[in-house]
Amino acid sequence: MMRFSPWLTATDTDKNAEQLGAVRSYVIRLSGIQFFDTNENPLHPKRAEMVGITLHGAKNNPFGREEVRYHYKSKDRLLCPVRAAQWVYKAATTFVTRPGDPALLMWNSGITYFGVD
Asked: Could you give the CA distance from residue 40 to residue 38 in angstroms, rounded to a whole number?
């Protein structure tokens, strides 16, 4: 069995992955989460049927412009994108996150899914 640790460290692989574009991380800002009804009218998160997530600098946009991805409510209580966005929104309001800050900026605390309906 060959050991690569003498020549290739974790730092080297991270740098190589970044140079190759294999690692991309995006931050969803609180202002980038919008809740809509089925006709794309903005409304309160609790009554939302659809969520729009604004992506900045998405790799799929050749001009680097922002793009909004829409996700509809599903019947699954754990994997529903609208419920997930409601959780993120609730956490952000609980932790007094400003609109331009990352949506999941938590200061040494956490949040549960209880109370999100």
From this structure: 6
- Could you list the residue range(s) of the whole structural domain that residue 77 is in? 25-112
Q: Angle 53-78-115 (CA atoms, 0-180°, nearest 5)? A: 85
Whether 43 is covered by a domain: the verdict is: yes
* pTM beyond 0.70, yes or no: no
Which H or E run contains 52?
strand 50-55
Q: What pLDDT digit, counting tens, does each position of 5-55 carry?
A: 455 566 665 665 556 555 455 678 888 999 999 998 999 999 999 999 988
- How far apart are alpha carbons 85 and 36 in whole angstroms? 12
Say if CB 42 and CB 36 are below 8 A apart: yes
Total tally of structural domains belonging to the chain: 1
